[in-house]
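Trying the structure run again after the queue cleared.
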Amino acid sequence: MSNKLDGDIENQYVKLNGKDASIITYILTQNNTKVRIKQVCFIDDNTAYILTTAALEDNYSQDSEIINNIISSFKK
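Done. Tokens:
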């Protein structure tokens, strides 16, 4: 099995349900298949949370709305 990080890691700072959060996005190639990973990191009441989502790169444009809805629906 071969894994490879493709391109740059994108980072942006946002508000997620009123909390400061960081979104990290990158593409990983595993066995010649590109997977886009999106992670949201935030801290609430001294607890760190990391939400990780993934979709095949070829399907990401159609899956991105679902992924964003999952992320924005997260409530502690």
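The chain has one helix and four strands. Worth checking whether this holds up in the mutant runs.
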